[in-house]
Design a protein that fits this description.
Blueprint (H helix, E strand, L loop, with lengths): L4 H15 L3 H8 L3 H8 L9 H10 L6 H6 L18 H33 L4
Helix pairs in contact: 2-3, 2-4
């Protein structure tokens, strides 16, 4: 599947002009470095970007999180109210993975606490 970074640059530039923002405003609102915003906006360096970068820029620009990814791949950008399609690397997928991992850690800590309490009960001298 081909990627159209020029279309992404055009979409961003059109929206930034519509909002009356400077490049640094977009960088600040999206938490994407100004250097990366500049590269994408001016289509200077064409390299693979993290889906998170495009998601952050999309949200900062008031679009659906997958708007710029759709533009990049020549698809119709989703409307703001449409659900996020999980492609395996969305923020929601990562949060769910973190929740599962945290739950596993809590379970392990509970088991460890029980083991330590048992050991202490047998090791401590009776008073």
């Amino acid at each position: 599947m081909s990627e159209d970074w020029a279309a992404v640059a055009k979409a961003i530039n059109d929206r930034v002009n519509e909002l009356g923002w400077l490049q640094r405003e977009l960088a600040k609102r999206s938490n994407v470095s100004q250097a990366v915003v500049r590269e994408i906006q001016h289509h200077v360096v064409e390299r693979r970007r993290s889906p998170r970068t495009l998601e952050s820029l999309s949200v900062a620009l008031g679009w659906h999180p997958q708007h710029l990814d759709a533009v990049l791949h020549g698809r119709r950008p989703p409307e703001l109210h449409e659900p996020v399609t999980d492609r395996g690397d969305t923020l929601w997928t990562r949060l769910e993975q973190l929740e599962r991992q945290m739950s596993e850690i809590v379970d392990r800590l509970d088991a460890l606490q029980t083991d330590v309490a048992t050991v202490l009960k047998h090791v401590r001298p009776k008073r």
